[in-house]
Amino acid sequence: MIILDTNAVIYYLQNDRRCVRVIDKLRARHQIAISTITEVELFSFPSLTSAQTLEIVRWLGELQAVPLDSSLARQAAHLRRVYGLKTPDAVVAATAFFFSAPLVTRDQKLNKVAELTIIKC
To answer: 66 phi and psi, to 5 degrees?
Structure first.
């Protein structure tokens, strides 16, 4: 399993060549998942158009969404406390950690989380 950070999804949907290449290569060999916090972030942009909403819905339909439960919340709290992460970043990191899955991201702050394997896109 591979976990995508919100920024990786955004870059992918914007057809960023590097991110598309990395994620498409991973999708061919692995199950791809996101945290439900990524859904919150993706659908919360004030300027999101109907067409963009449909594209996000379609694309996320191909991925597994991992719900935030109590054990993930506690792991996120631990990572937030230890590394000073913001809550959404801590939840995404905890999701990757929980599944022992690499995290696809461009977020430099997540590089400091020793428990994670980062794949840059």
So the answer is: -95, 115
Contact of 32 with 63, CB cutoff 8 Å: yes
Spatial contact of 118 and 103, defined as CB atoms under 8 Å apart: yes
Q: How far apart are CA 42 and CA 64, in angstroms?
A: 15
Q: Which two tokens stand for residue 86?
A: 């913001």
pTM of the model: 0.94
Question: Hey, which residues does 120 pair with through a beta bridge?
Answer: 105
Mind listing the pLDDT tens digit for each residue in 6-44?
999 999 999 999 999 999 999 999 999 999 999 999 999
Torsion of CA 40, 110, 8, 45, to 10 degrees: 30
Q: Determine whether domain 2-120 maps to CATH 3.90.1720.10.
A: no
| Contact residues for 24 (Cβ-Cβ < 8 A; gap 6+) | none
Domains of the chain, by residue range, sit at 2-120
